[in-house]
Amino acid sequence: MNDHPTKRLLNAPADIVTEALAGMIAAHPDLLALEGPTGRAVVAVDGPRDGKVGIVIGGGSGHEPAFAGYVGRGLADAAAVGNVFASPGPQQILDAARAVEGGTGVLFLYGNYTCDVMNFDMAVEACAAEGIPARSLAVTDDVASAPRDRAGDRRGIAGDFFVFKIAGAAADAGRDLEECLAAARAANAATRTMGVALTPCAMPQTGQAHFAIAPDSMEIGMGIHGEPGMRSAPLGRADDLADELIETILDDLDARRNDRVAVLVNGLGATGQLELYILNRRVAQVLADRGITVHRTWVGEYCTSLDMAGASVTLMRLDDDLAALLDRPCRTVALTVGETPTPVARRRDRPARGPAPTAKRKVQGRSTLATDGTVTPQVFRAMMGGAAQAISDQRDWLSRLDGVIGDGDHGITMEIGWTAITRVLDEAPADATITDLCDRMSTAFLDAVGASTGPLYASAFAAAGAAVSDRLNLDGPAMAAWIRGMCDGIVSRGGAALGDKTMIDAWLPAADAASAHDADPVSALKAAANAAAGGRDRTAQMESRRGRSAKLGARSLGHIDPGAASACLILESMKQYLG
């Protein structure tokens, strides 16, 4: 692995996405605008209108031109943009939905990753609460990430390009919500992708590659978040690589002579068109030899992975309807098809929507709250500040752990979330209870992070606060109840179980140990921290069964889970504060 940081043209790492979006809007004011309080909903200037289904796409930054590059007339009406390699959060997605909803519903489209599924599902729930009909589809085109009998587990990679185009055309043609969803499903079912990585990518915040590829090797079946591929292979000739990619795709599609396909040869960020055209030459030869007609071909960068060198090949098998929708005109930053569509009247201005009313927690009077226990709200604030510092101090270590079996952003994501917590704790009233503080932490973490840790820790803080809502101060049993609440909140949102190689492998042993040693908060936290460390270490012997690392199978063995590692840091810092 290269020890020299990748050179970047950046200002402050924390401002990467905000500044990039500002530059994009400045370059294309005739096409794009930012709407909504989160500043992460990129909306088409021409496209959203009354009586039309709103198409909202989304995902993390670092894949440019995906996702905001596909916003425009005839394609997506808006994109919700997350942090680098992290799903947008529910509020960012909801901003996009509110901006484009024309009275006939909204269709969400995104890649099939645990974090995106959780956040878009939460946005669907929020839309329903506001009376906006919403449906969603996760793209599953990556043939390398799961066998055909588990196609629903596959990742969404460059095939997003075709699914987004088909859904956007269907909506632009005036089809209703269910018809747009059916068109998107048909496109997804007809689309397959396989890719190869020649070099790893580096997260902008660290500048370090988070996994290694030997100079004479390549990773077959890599993911677009820098996840290692399914297997390593010697670097060979372009034709041999193209043969493997295209033959695997054709076999998976059950492609036959006289089929008609659309082709995408996609660069991953650091592979130029010279090489991509060499790949496409061979792809075209193989398809011709098979008697398969190429309807359209695109070659270039359409779904990247930061500065990764490599490429992917995508095919969509066409019927008459898919071909017609593919050919329907669109105009976006990244893709223009046909004549520029005639501008249309935008939807009528609607009253600004705020968050739907939520069921408020029944608040006990402060005078009725239990006051025994050494962990006061002031002490709790300090403990959370210590946890935030511990996460920040170990950010790069956590990201390195994640880079080996995931996408390398766990430390960065956790630091962003805990920085938001620190800010909201500083702003909280002096008389806020621990439950009040937990509710504020929950909202702050979710709004700042998205990804998978956003919903998981937001649910954790909310459940932990509810578990101690009858208390002003925490004694031993209450401290154990708070830890149990953290665990229960994560399980209720994510569904992971002990042995899945996730943060639950630390939080569940911690909760059990705290309950068994709850004489006082110090004892509870000491037992919890020790048990969490044991659970963390055991994850090295587990094969991943959840999240992105589950695609690696046995290659995930021998590495501790980064989520379990960060859970240990939180509990250890809390223990150390109390002594």
TrEMBL record:
Residues 535-546 have a biased composition (Basic and acidic residues). Residues 343-368, 533-553 are annotated as: Disordered. Its EC number is 2.7.1.121. InterPro entries: DhaK_dom, DhaK_L_YcgS, DhaL_dom, DhaL_dom_sf, Dihydroxyacetone_Kinase. It comes from the Bacteria. The keyword Transmembrane helix does not apply. It is an enzyme of class 2 (transferase). Residues 378-576 form the DhaL domain. This is Dihydroxyacetone kinase subunit DhaK. It comes from Paracoccus liaowanqingii. GO terms for molecular function: ATP binding; glycerone kinase activity; phosphoenolpyruvate-glycerone phosphotransferase activity. Pfam families: Dak1 (PF02733), Dak2 (PF02734).
